């Protein structure tokens, strides 16, 4: 069943056309058979009929020749020519030969046609015709022999014989003519039998064609039923599915799948149903969103209405505030005039402060110069202590050498023994002096270290003092600048307050315009309130619409 | 300020002079007694005090530049020139098993040695005279070439206050065969 619908329908049409073509061919063949039969019968029967006519004519000619011969004999007895008697016998014999030949032909034809007869009736009819022809032959032989004798008598002018035989011959000749008529009658029977058999063949053909037509009609009905089974039932399934989709049931799916058109249609419808389900789902979600959004719009509109009322109240409050501003503007103008007077006094004070600060800066400069001189002196002192340190190193070295010298003297004194005893005492004294000198240098070095530390601290303190003096000078300078800036600012402040007074006057004018604008705002607020009410109504309608849409979307079963 | 400094210096000078006068007075008290004493040259080697017999010492000199000998032990500092003769310089601290002494210490030249030898010490402290070796502790400390230990306060001259070890000089020099 994997054939496509088109192929199935094409197959049905091909089968029906084949049946019709076979039917036409069969009918044509039957018609050809009937026509052949008719042709055969007509050609045979007409041929035999023509030969029978020839036979009759020839026999009648024989009769005429014989009668003319008899008449000529009878008349020549009264004096007629000899020549005409010879002609009678020759003509008669010629006719007789012709007749015999015709008889032979007919007999052969009858034998042939009897063998190749179309039907048994025709064969028996041909047999009857053949017996009649045999009778004709017998009659002819009798006529021939009798006529031969008479004509020889004619030639011999035997009038008695001629007359004597004449009646018998006439009787025999009549019998011949009669038998020929019988033959014609028999041929008519053959023709009738032929017509009957042609009719029979025609009837049989008509019957068989009718049966074939009925069979082809039945076959066509069968093909139609098969096509219906193969095409219409799946289509009905598809239509039921489509009706379910139309009713809103998107849950079902067509189970039939295949490569034919119905299968492809089913697949397409399945994807369509899936797409519709998606669409319905999306639609449902969007409708829910729309419903929520409409509700939000409604809430917003209500809030807006409330805020418009608040705005209205605020505008009225603003109007009251602007009124107060108008009053306070006048006071500002008055106070600003007072501030101008105070600022001018402050500028005077700043100028005297500036003079004092300049004096302080000069004093700081002189302090710094003094400190720098002190630092220079201390540095010179430090250099002197360095020189003292070097001297101490020299003294230390001398004491060390003296130490060694005293030791060597003591060693030499010891080596000298008793004679060196007094020298040993001197050496001992020398060593003692060297050691004391060394101790003294150590103490001096300690004191010198303290002095240098004190100098360093003094230098640092002096430098710190110089730095602080410089910093004080810098600060005093900045104080001078600050006071100058302050005086300038105070001057600017005076100008600014004068501008404030002017601006306040302009402000009064501006506030009157603001009052007018507030009036306009009040009117606009009223219009906005009306518009908000309309928006609220519209959002309520929108909510109802969204709920209706949701009800519609609920129709789809997913 | 200068007045205060001057007063401080004067005070210190007076104190020095007084101390010296006192020392001289104290020494002359027992000087008349003829007691047989033995002199030692006391040297400092790190924290140790070592006494050399005064008879074996030729003199004391400041340090001289020494040339190190290749392959020599750490106790042999090298050889140097001293008053026209070549002197072998030994590091006494290294010989006693202490850590090597400083380069700028004193040199003690030894008497009657061939070749001439000198011992490098950190510093020569002074000359000590002890009455006899009777009160010398004979127990030698460690494995060094030391004959005994002189306790502190044994010096009759008062020049050396600390105690010291008496060096066994022949035993020390026997380690260096000439």
UniProtKB/TrEMBL annotation, chain A:
An example Pfam family from this entry, by short name, is HAMP
Domain (Methyl-accepting transducer) ranges: 286-522
What keywords is this UniProt entry annotated with? Coiled coil, Membrane, Transducer, Transmembrane, Transmembrane helix
The record's annotation in InterPro entries points to: HAMP_dom, MCPsignal_dom
This protein's GO cellular component annotations are:
membrane
Coiled-coil positions are: 276-318
HAMP domain location: 229-281
Q: Which GO terms describe its biological process?
A: signal transduction
Transmembrane regions listed in the UniProt entry: 207-232
Q: What protein family is recorded?
A: Belongs to the methyl-accepting chemotaxis (MCP) protein family.
The name on file for this protein is: Methyl-accepting chemotaxis protein
UniProt lineage? Bacteria, Pseudomonadati, Pseudomonadota, Alphaproteobacteria, Hyphomicrobiales
TrEMBL record, chain B:
Kindly give the Pfam families that the UniProt entry links to this protein.
CheW (PF01584)
Task: Name its GO BP terms in alphabetical order.
Answer: chemotaxis; signal transduction
Q: Which domain of life is it from?
A: Bacteria
Q: Which SMART domains match?
A: CheW
Domain (CheW-like): give its ranges: 37-178
Q: What is this protein called?
A: Purine-binding chemotaxis protein CheW
Please give the organism: Methylorubrum salsuginis
